[in-house]
Design brief:
CATH superfamily of the largest domain: Pseudouridine synthase
Order of helices and strands: EHHEEEEEHEHEEEEEEHHHEEH
Distance between the termini: 63 Å
């Protein structure tokens, strides 16, 4: 058990308790801090307070963090494409269809299971089922992802993501033709008020999110885009593009089947139906090495299914 004490200064006065502790880097994410607060392991002047409590100048804040427990996700001999690996990080090219870490309905066969077999050890900060995970790609999204192999690397990468210094670029095929060559979507993302498994760009409560996009190619009824993230919210690219009426082709959650039925080419309809995943690919990742402080960048080509759809679209022009 680790205990940390902080004294609230005037510059931090009136901040939410969870925000104050997050900025102190006591844990990598606000959600983890909120869980600790719910477990009554945070005290302000020796009294348990809610995450929304506004700290005041002179307050003494104490947080109790349990020691990391042995990882419970089991190693599995699953092939995974390693792009780079050293003692701090491992960078992989995740295929579409692979879940990043165990969770509800996916207790095995994940990237974490594969990496535990390959690496043997990963950072324990993410917990027993999310070791090493500092960012995620959706199950249907392919592309490059970095995983931390020790706690120092985990904290460094988490800080880089928080400070928006990590560069992430995606490729996407979306419905419709864009009105401009490029643009920016800036709207908060939070849980959908009705469909709890979906995210929304018009939530009752959400977190700021920014996505920049530019057009690479235009086809009849479709556009091939590059999207660059400033923030990293759940389903961000998918939600933001849907919010400007250009949902990603093949997306079973944010794209209506009516859009695909409205496409005149049956060949295009059929090929997108057979892909069975959002045509979204994380093609570029750039970050600072946690220990060496050098810039690393990785670029992965479009996967075969993505190229197949592009080929059909190009022939239809």
């Amino acid at each position: 058990m680790q205990k940390h004490n902080y004294k609230v200064t005037e510059e931090n006065s009136r901040k939410r308790l969870d925000v104050f502790l997050f900025e102190k880097k006591s844990l990598p994410s606000r959600s983890q801090i909120q869980d600790v607060i719910k477990d009554n392991r945070v005290w302000v002047n020796s009294i348990n307070q809610k995450a929304s409590y506004k700290v005041c100048t002179g307050d003494t804040v104490e947080i109790s963090i349990t020691d990391p427990v042995p990882l419970q996700a089991e190693p599995e001999n699953i092939p995974v494409e390693i792009m780079f690996e050293d003692s701090s990080v491992v960078v992989v090219n995740k295929p579409a269809g692979m879940v990043v870490h165990p969770g509800s309905g996916n207790f095995s066969g994940t990237l974490v299971n594969a990496l535990l077999y390959h690496c043997r050890t990963l950072s324990g900060i993410g917990g027993v089922v999310r070791p090493g995970i500092v960012h995620r790609l959706d199950k249907g999204t392919s592309g490059v992802l970095v995983v931390a192999k020790n706690d120092l690397a985990h904290l460094s990468l988490s800080s880089q993501f928080k400070e928006h210094t990590v560069i992430r670029k995606y490729k996407a095929i979306v419905f419709g033709t864009m009105d401009d060559i490029s643009g920016t979507v800036k709207s908060p993302i939070g849980r959908h008020p009705i469909h709890r498994k979906k995210m929304s760009a018009q939530p009752k409560r959400g977190r700021d999110a920014v996505t920049h996009w530019k057009t690479i190619e235009t086809f009849d009824n479709f556009s091939f885009l590059e999207a660059m993230l400033e923030t990293g919210r759940t389903h961000q690219v998918r939600v933001h593009l849907e919010s400007i009426n250009h949902p990603i082709a093949g997306d079973p959650v944010y794209s209506s089947p009516k859009l695909l039925k409205s496409v005149s080419s049956k060949q295009i309809q059929d090929i997108i139906k057979t892909i069975r995943r959002p045509l979204l690919h994380a093609g570029y990742l750039e970050f600072m090495h946690p220990e060496k402080k050098t810039t690393l960048f990785f670029k992965v080509p479009l996967p075969d299914d993505f190229l197949k759809v592009l080929g059909v679209l190009r022939c239809s022009v």
